[in-house]
Amino acid sequence: MPAPIPAIVSGQVLPAFLLCSTLLIIKMYVVAIITGQVRLRKKAFANPEDALRHGGLQYCRSDPDVDRCLRAHRNDMENIYPFLFLGLVYSFLGPSPFVAWTHFLLVFLGRVVHTVAYLGKLRAPTRSLAYTVAQLPCVSMALQIIWEAAHHL
Ligand SMILES: N[C@@H](CCC(=O)N[C@@H](CS)C(=O)NCC(=O)O)C(=O)O
């Protein structure tokens, strides 16, 4: 009986990961662009040279909406960066394409909803639920990687 072709070779899992992860990176760029726009609209700049260019040193100040954008961005970094590692390694474990797609899609949708909930100030616990939806598949991938690694020690 021929050896089963790993899903990675048949090209279903890795492209799914690359698609979801790259879209999430673009989503982070969008948060950065929104942060810049909010800074301009609220006249709240991080650096004196920026404030001077836009009216005076008094505009080198913090703002609750800018801070919210920065928290959304930081939370992305805390969660999307680990996904870039976990999802890539997981893709090479030969998972079922359907299960892998489900993992990646949950991370993608969870993180998009998390950003919308954070920036849109949606009612709690929308943001926390979205965070959890994206975290569960990441924990699942981490456990599977640990399991596989432990078996190859
Ligand atoms: N660094 C996070 C760790 C926990 C976490 O990521 N919680 C999610 C769901 S409640 C969140 O959106 N935290 C808000 C944030 O990181 O700004 C925190 O300080 O809250």
TrEMBL record:
It catalyses: (5S)-hydroperoxy-(6E,8Z,11Z,14Z)-eicosatetraenoate + 2 glutathione = (5S)-hydroxy-(6E,8Z,11Z,14Z)-eicosatetraenoate + glutathione disulfide + H2O; 2-glyceryl-prostaglandin H2 = 2-glyceryl-prostaglandin E2; prostaglandin H2 = prostaglandin E2; prostaglandin G2 = (15S)-15-hydroperoxy-prostaglandin E2. Its cofactor is glutathione. The keyword Lyase does not apply. GO terms for cellular component: membrane; perinuclear region of cytoplasm. It comes from the Eukaryota. GO terms for molecular function: glutathione transferase activity; oxidoreductase activity; prostaglandin-E synthase activity. Its EC number is 2.5.1.18, 5.3.99.3. Pathway: Lipid metabolism; prostaglandin biosynthesis. One of its GO terms (biological process) is prostaglandin biosynthetic process. It is a multi-pass membrane protein. Signal peptide: none annotated. Its main location: cytoplasm. Keywords: Cytoplasm, Fatty acid biosynthesis, Fatty acid metabolism, Isomerase, Lipid biosynthesis, Lipid metabolism, Membrane, Oxidoreductase, Prostaglandin biosynthesis, Prostaglandin metabolism, Transferase, Transmembrane, Transmembrane helix. SUPFAM superfamilies: MAPEG domain-like (SSF161084). The chain crosses the membrane at residues 12-34, 80-98. It is found in: Cytoplasm, Perinuclear region; Membrane. Belongs to the MAPEG family. PANTHER family: MICROSOMAL GLUTATHIONE S-TRANSFERASE 1, PROSTAGLANDIN E SYNTHASE. Terminal enzyme of the cyclooxygenase (COX)-2-mediated prostaglandin E2 (PGE2) biosynthetic pathway. Catalyzes the glutathione-dependent oxidoreduction of prostaglandin endoperoxide H2 (PGH2) to prostaglandin E2 (PGE2) in response to inflammatory stimuli. Plays a key role in inflammation response, fever and pain. Also catalyzes the oxidoreduction of endocannabinoids into prostaglandin glycerol esters and PGG2 into 15-hydroperoxy-PGE2. This is Prostaglandin E synthase. It comes from Hipposideros armiger (Great Himalayan leaf-nosed bat). The lineage of its organism: Eukaryota, Metazoa, Chordata, Craniata, Vertebrata.
